[in-house]
Model the fold of this input.
Amino acid sequence: MTESATTRAGSRRSAIITAAQRLAVDCGYAGFTVEDLARAVGVSRRTLFNHVSSKEEAVLGLLPVLTDEQAATLRSGGPTGHLVDDVLTVVLDCLHADDGTPADFEQLHDVIERNPELFVRVKTHVEELGEQLVTHLSARDDADDSRSRMALAIVGGIVQHSVVQCIATPSLGPLSDRARANLTTSREILADPA
Done:
């Protein structure tokens, strides 16, 4: 596929996700069909499925997935050699944190908030991803199951807080920058003897 074809495919996919999220907010997840979505985007059902595998993927986009390369990097003690930094780096990479805008996060938040059946799916997916992360982290020299779970809990809280901040105050910058700043703040709080 040429670069321009790849760009067009990415733009089409983005348009599908935007339209699906708008329909999910306006009509509810169960309140529209794939045909309604295809009509809203101005494509055929077949073209729609060339860009997304399901209605759920159209509404949620691609949920974060741990790649084999990321798993191997975590198991080997990377990418930075510091447990919490490594978890944060990989989680932000899985979330494609540098690709999304505050408006994207806000729209997805609205979709999930207004469609509880999707919240359950997202929660289950995130829990499964967490278990995968713990499995790979626990293979490291600097982490057992308990330390891996604590590192993941710390990073989960930081990322969640960072998403809320990005939605509330988009001028704070991208999610990845906000999360790294919040990790620094967390370290300062934990180092404070008071």
Observations:
- The two ends are 59 Å apart (CA to CA).
- The longest helix spans residues 3-27.
- The chain is about 75% helix and 0% strand.
- The chain has a mean pLDDT of 91.
